[in-house]
Specification:
This protein is of the alpha/beta class. It folds into two domains: 140 residues, TIM Barrel (Alpha-Beta Barrel), CATH 3.20.20; 91 residues, TIM Barrel. Helix content is 34%, strand content 20%. Strand 10 and strand 11 form a beta hairpin. Helix 5 runs parallel beside helix 6 and helix 7 packs across helix 8. The radius of gyration is 18 Å and the shape is globular.
């Protein structure tokens, strides 16, 4: 049965990667994964936003991709070492810091794809999404982080399990099994989508047999991160159900 996360939304899916930044983002003060970037994606007509979360020194789950603040703010400190209030001040002129709970409250029409980047963020993320499980997909490269967030949502009283996509180890197993034409249903049990790069380390990850294996199990296939229109069209023609992209505005008019 299709998870409500997918019900009533356009297909193929367009997932705005960390929101939407101006095409010339080098000239913009707007940062990724901020309220401003999400508002821009929403204004462009996006239904899905892909984002990432980490825990602050206060234990709050905030939407940040990197383990440190170096790339965004030139600050070498780890996100986990910084208090939430200080982070909020740092983000004031760059779109506005969001916690997981803030994002869900501020954008009630958006469906969120949340990548749990740190173990410390799993519990507060699950707790925050419990009341919004119908419009949240939980994923992580780490199976431990993913399952911990799902367990936290259940413990917090979620009426249903959030949608979910597996981590790296499950993707590797699925790729091997599908390539050998071996049964892969066990790998995909309890899974709603798989999210993969087209290629990784010289290996073709997105393949016709992988797509067929996923679709036989009723599982969607999303490919990241694709910004070229011709590549988007080619992947959709090859069976992809969704594209994670920095150019959601372009994707919406392409696929």
């Amino acid at each position: 049965m299709t998870h409500p996360y997918f019900a009533g939304a356009r297909h193929p899916r367009v997932l705005a990667h960390r929101g939407l930044l101006p095409e010339s983002s080098a000239d913009s003060s707007l940062w990724e994964n901020t309220a401003g970037a999400f508002a821009a994606a929403h204004a462009a007509g996006v239904e899905y936003i892909e984002t990432d979360c980490r825990a602050t020194a206060d234990g709050d789950a905030v939407l940040l991709h990197d383990p440190t603040l170096q790339r965004l703010a030139g600050d070498e400190r780890a996100v986990a070492e910084v208090r939430t209030a200080e982070l909020s001040r740092m983000f004031e002129d760059h779109g506005g810091l969001l916690t997981v709970a803030d994002a869900l409250d501020a954008f009630p029409e958006i469906r969120f794809n949340i990548d749990v980047k740190a173990a410390e963020a799993a519990e507060p993320t699950g707790r925050a999404v419990a009341a919004h499980a119908h419009r949240v997909l939980i994923t992580s490269f780490s199976e431990r982080n993913r399952t911990a967030a799902l367990e936290s949502a259940a413990y917090a009283g979620a009426a249903l399990r959030p949608a979910t996509a597996p981590g790296r180890s499950a993707i590797i197993r699925l790729r091997l099994l599908s390539g050998l034409r071996l049964p892969s249903a066990r790998v995909l049990k309890g899974i709603d989508a798989i999210q993969v790069p087209e290629r990784h380390a010289g290996v073709q990850v997105f393949t016709p047999v992988l797509v067929r294996a996923a679709h036989r199990a009723g599982v969607e296939v999303h490919v990241w991160t694709v910004d070229d229109p011709d590549a988007m069209r080619g992947l959709i023609d090859a069976g992809a159900d969704g594209i994670v992209t920095n150019r959601a505005d372009l994707a919406l008019s392409t696929i």
